[in-house]
Amino acid sequence: MLKKVDEGGGDDRYAEELGPEATFWLEQLQGHVERLVQYAQAGHSSVPYDELLQVTAQIEVAIDRAKERALAAMAARRQAALAGTTTAPRLAGHEGREGARLVS
Fold it and tell me: Quick check: 19 and 67 in contact, CB under 8 A?
């Protein structure tokens, strides 16, 4: 999860690549879902607990995919730098959406 990466060792590589706005909204969404899960566990929510667990899993998958894209973009830029080219691929698309892709 994105938040745990930041808390664990101060590793902000993903946050840099995703951008501060996308990182902020992913963390906000993750926090809201975690609170809903806690409310559901305590019996204070009308949303079924199983449904919240599914949403949480989907968010974790989306965050993992975003991290993979970020790492691919960083690796492509490193390769471009090693090759001496001046243009390197960047992560493009709608931040936080599945449609993000590498462009040069």
Answer: no
8 A C-beta contact, residue 59 and residue 33: yes
For 58-84, how does the pLDDT look when each residue is reduced to its tens digit (9 = 90+)? Answer: 877 877 787 788 888 888 888 888 887
Residue corresponding to tokens 């949480």: 56
DSSP for 39-101 reads: HHHTT--SS-HHHHHHHHHHHHHHHHHHHHHHHHHHHHHHHHHHHT-S---EEESSTTSTT-E
CA dihedral 20, 67, 13, 26 (to 10 degrees): 30
What radius of gyration, in Å, describes the C-alpha atoms of the chain? Answer: 17
DSSP letter at 14 equals H
Residues forming a β-bridge with 103: 90
The reported pTM is 0.47
